[in-house]
Design goal:
With 314 residues, the protein is mainly β. 2% of the residues lie in helices and 31% in strands. Strand 25 and strand 26 form a beta hairpin.
């Protein structure tokens, strides 16, 4: 819909299908009303729910309230449910919520606190992406699937970093991923503009899509293992898209995100019978950035004069 001036909408009884991004960018929307005869949807306090009240479909993002707690009836929070909810400071996922959808709260810059109840078993990767003011994610101690460590969201076994929150607030900072973590989820650090350096343990095995997307000030990644171990990590193709010009510091050297190449270095001169080879190295980290063959040289011909004699021609 993308209507920036829309403040109120009425959904008639005939509507039976509303897509998850129907009200994106309607950031002044303060009330979603549903005809009481609609068999599929209903409104509670101006927000949109499934008829049985078990699914929160859309929070009216233009509301002025700072804290929102799920009604006890809600078990599922749909994708984009809190899109553009600028006023929210705190969201409480009640103890009956079991699933939180993809991109649940993009563009909620003032959100600082999230509470996850004991029954949440499925949080879509990237559910809390772009919440760049987020300071703390807390989890009920009896939740069997997730836990909070220093305000960051992890899997219960502590092996997956699901979502990052900067408990210290704004300003340049670094972060040390705890030893034993093997995976960083998709969009875990997405849009954390102020993060400048991160330390990654040698236990790491995979880093997901857009994990460091738009971490524009990222300049240093310290990896506690070797280059060989770093290269053995499974990186999603977009893991560092739009991130800063970082350098990776391993125990046995340094590697750049973007190399500064010098001139060609000749390894073997080409001849007319054999190809040669050459390579370039990064002037900062010294790693080889490019290699190529040098094509064979053309033959060079010279004239050889044989003098004639009285019996043979020259």
């Amino acid at each position: 819909m993308k209507s920036r001036g829309l403040v109120r909408i009425k959904i008639p009884a005939s509507v039976k299908d509303i897509c998850v991004d129907a009200f994106n960018v309607c950031y002044r929307l303060r009330s979603i009303e549903v005809n009481e005869n609609n068999p599929y949807y209903k409104s509670i306090d101006g927000n949109l729910y499934s008829k049985d009240g078990k699914t929160l479909i859309r929070y009216a993002s233009g509301k002025s309230q700072n804290i929102f707690a799920m009604p006890e009836s809600v078990t599922v929070v749909k994708d984009n449910a809190f899109y553009d909810a600028y006023s929210l400071d705190t969201i409480v996922f009640s103890d009956n919520v079991t699933a939180i959808g993809l991109g649940t709260m993009p563009s909620t810059p003032n959100l600082r606190y999230i509470y996850i109840g004991r029954s949440v078993a499925d949080i879509a990767e990237g559910a809390f992406s772009n919440c760049y003011g987020l300071e703390e994610i807390s989890v009920d101690k009896d939740n069997a699937y997730y836990q909070s460590i220093d305000g960051k969201l992890y899997s219960k076994d502590g092996k997956t970093l699901v979502a990052f929150a900067d408990k210290a607030g704004y300003g340049a900072y670094g972060f040390i991923v705890p030893d034993g973590v093997t995976r960083i989820s998709a969009k875990a650090f997405c849009s954390n503009y102020d993060i400048t350096d991160i330390t990654i343990p040698e236990s790491m095995t995979s880093i997901g899509d857009y994990a460091f997307y738009f971490c524009t000030d990222l300049t240093s990644i310290t990896f506690k293992g070797t280059f060989e171990q770093w290269n053995a990590i499974t990186f999603a193709s977009t893991w560092d898209e739009a991130a800063g010009e970082y350098k990776v510091y391993c125990t046995d050297g340094v590697m750049c995100k973007t190399h500064t190449e010098g001139e060609w270095i000749i390894d073997k001169e080409a001849t007319c019978t054999e190809e040669g080879s050459r390579h370039k190295v990064c002037s900062f980290c010294g790693n080889t950035t490019k290699t190529e063959a040098i094509k064979k040289k053309d033959h060079e011909y010279v004239s050889v004069v044989t003098k004639s004699t009285c019996t043979e021609r020259g």
